[in-house]
Amino acid sequence: MNQEISIRPAGHVRWMICALLFLATTINYIDRQILSLLKPMLDVEIGWTNEQFGVVNAAFQFAYAVSLLFFGWFIDRFGTKIGYAVSIGAWSLAAMAHAIVASFGGFLAARVALGLGEGGNFPAAVKTVGAWFPKRERALATTLFNSGANVGAVAAPLLVPLLASTLGWQSAFLAAGLAGFLWLLLWIPLYSEPGAGRRVSSAELSWIRSDPPAPAVAPIPWAGLLRYRQTWSFIAAKFLTDPVWWFFLIWLPDFFKKTRGLDIKQSWVLLVAIYSIVTVLSIGGGWLTGWFASRGWSPVRARKVSLLLFAAMVLPIATVNFCGDWMAVALIGLAGASHQAWSANLYTSVSDMFPNRAVASVTGIGSMAGSIGGILFPIIAGILLDRMGAGGYGFLFAYCAAAYLVAFALNHLLAPRFAPVENA
Predict the structure, then answer these.
(1) What pTM value is reported for the model?
(2) Which fold has domain 8-190+226-413?
């Protein structure tokens, strides 16, 4: 314990790296939300149906799923620094490309390009956390960088309507792409592996490497990872729960428009409030697992109980259609925060179960499964809303409420102890 206290204050570089991951994730989620915020404006300009809007988002998810699989391999093969730079450079160009299209087909192509670029963010970020943080800090570090998703979701409704109303809707996409290229100017000179740069003190390096050494194991092709139940525990949970977060990002502006008559000039305050709640509360999710561990719980017990608690906290969202505006904000905010805390612990379970050489690949495979769920859900949502109108949102929120408990049950069945694999 005394050694831990003496080492921990000496280090700061790993948290600077975490800040870079946070910034990348923030930009990533601003890019993703721009289209949904501009939907009312583009509905008039393009004249697409809800189903077509769902297809555009499903096409993004399909491309993103393919990209996750590719970048999982690419990052494990060529390293985090190169992999992250290639991903962000590609998605920044794709974001800017949205500004030169003005049709259903044009947006379909632009969203595919964006999805192909974005797949490197989470595999690279999770691998970076695995390399720079000991196991006891990984849940917190993952929660902190993942909170960039919430900050991006707060910033987008603040910035996008302002840019669109003053400079035209194209300016929002151009600004998002520019932000990605500015991030690269920080990442390329500042990032290195622990021990490779001169900024890391010996005390911090000792802290980073303070976990017991993992047994030497032979690497296997990524496809071989599908032999492990642990891989499928991650796949099942991501497939069922990732679509919920995508549903929030894609459909919330339309939800407030169709069910409460609020356009983006009126609902932006509610959207900002939702993602502000998500940002604040989700950070506690990473802290909670560490707090359980500090009480003498094993890491597995702490993570399992946390996952179950977060799954249960999403249940009240089933009643959102029957609530007033601000109660709906509170319930959606609580559900969103629970998702982010759930997601952070789920991501961390990968680095608990797999050696670092396989973490990005497993994360890519599982995240691809989440994207497959995200491909199906927008199409189903669009068809349901075209046929049922605003009443379709009741069925969609009911799925959101139940998804996490079902996912927890499958995850626990497949990996009851998050046991480390032996040959990955």
Answers:
(1) 0.74
(2) Growth Hormone; Chain: A; (1.20.1250)
